Amino acid sequence: MDWQTARARSAVAALTNARRGLIALAIATPLFFWAVGRPEFWSLQIWAYQQADQAHFPNPGAIVFTGSSRFDSGRRCATI
């Protein structure tokens, strides 16, 4: 096999792999959005928040951030 044939086969293999990846992405994306819309998807995270509230409930008058994962880690929020 000469280098041109090897290069052509390599290009075909790369295109085939890219095509497979796009097909997998086309299948996985709607499934992901379908799953995110179901309450069961969030049950583990909700349970974790409930456990955290039972262990350390916020003090009266405390500011509680909700609705954004950016505040989830609390690295940028100062405690008073």
User: What is the H/E order?
Assistant: HH
Sequence stretches where pLDDT stays below 50 over 5 or more residues: none
User: How many whole angstroms does the radius of gyration measure?
Assistant: 24 Å
Which whole number gives the mean pLDDT?
Answer: 80
Give the helix proportion (percent range): 55-70%
Count, helices: 2
Percent strand equals under 5%
What's the β-strand tally?
0
Structural class per helix/strand content? mainly alpha
Shape: rod-shaped
Gap between N and C termini, in Å? 72 Å
Largest sheet: none
Strand-helix topology:
Elements: H1 3-36, H2 39-55
Question: Can you offer a commentary on this structure?
Answer:
This protein is mostly helical. The chain contains 2 helices and no strands. The longest helix is centred in the N-terminal third of the chain and has 34 residues, at 3-36. The termini are far apart.
Q: What is shown here, in short?
A:
This protein has 80 residues and is mainly α.
